[in-house]
């Protein structure tokens, strides 16, 4: 099928309160979200859904559906992010987490890495004081007090550098982020990649907490409680990069097999927690242990956490991640102790 996807930036500008709007016309917010992130390919969606979205955005179908345009990812060298929910360059990434799940550590690590890669890092300061943002501020080049200041700074810096921009959900609720993104569309600058977080944690209970997104990172309390960081859920996190037309087929195949393994492992783990390892069928023992090893491998030491963990930060290229995950899926590391896979770089 032709390489097609939704024009998410257009939807974001035209329909800021997409959750309510979608419900009013009979669309499920989860379906709309999955279409925007690419979890549901546009080619498999119902015609009435696409037509309803076009009517909400007051645009033609040709404007809503982008054809033949590739989505470019930003490689973070963080295994679980690059494998399951890559960052769309120039897109909007939403972090869905309650406090304590590690979203700020992930952002601090990204700012550290992006700054080294030559990006300009910009933070729109949220209302009130938030001491928990201290780690992010260490690698933030520009802290904008207002939305107007953020626009001014990015209009200048964006002429020579790509920008990583972070804002709290409070600015989404006021509509300021949508207005800023629309204004930036009219300025001749390089890509602005936007991260939206929720310092209050209310986003977990919302269907579309940030409106349309290109990438969604759903953080997981179970992973966080067991210190499996970064605690980004590999099953529910997604990205429009993962549409088959935009992604290398090898990546897509390994990603799908890894998700399938982890999904079954989580089901089996629930049984093991209640009945013990003998409580699952003998035919599932291998699946369970490979799931354990994959989950352990997806943990990763961060540079910004070295003082706390005592473990040196690690970068893992997407190529190495894919090779390592394939080894786990194929059973090449079945003999390795699970502890030897915790918080490492490559195998």
Question: Can I get a quick summary?
Answer:
It is found in: Membrane. With 347 residues, the protein is α/β, with parallel strands linked by helices.
Secondary structure layout plus pairing:
Blueprint (H helix, E strand, L loop, with lengths): L3 E3 L1 H7 L3 H7 L4 H9 L9 H11 L3 H4 E3 L5 E2 L4 H6 L2 E2 L3 E5 L6 H14 L3 E5 L9 H4 L4 E3 L2 H11 L5 E6 H5 L2 H10 L6 E6 L17 E4 L2 H5 L12 E2 L9 H27 L9 H13 L8 H4 L8 H13 L17
- Low-confidence stretches are none
CATH architecture of the largest domain, please?
A: 3-Layer(aba) Sandwich
Portion in helices? 40-55%
Count of helix runs: 16
Strand order of the largest sheet: 7-6-8-9-5-10-11
Rounded average pLDDT: 92
Alpha carbon gap, first and last residue? 37 Å
Shape: globular
* CATH topology call of the largest domain: Cobalt-precorrin-4 Transmethylase, domain 1
Please identify the top-level CATH class of the largest domain. Alpha Beta
What is the H/E order? EHHHHHEEHEEHEHEHEHHEEHEHHHH
Number of structural domains: 3
Rg, rounded, reads: 20 Å
Number of strands: 11
Beta-strand level of the residues, as a percent range? 5-15%
What does the main sheet amount to? 7 strands, mixed
Q: What do we call the CATH homologous superfamily of the largest domain?
A: 4-hydroxy-3-methylbut-2-enyl diphosphate reductase, catalytic domain
Structural class determined from secondary elements:
alpha/beta
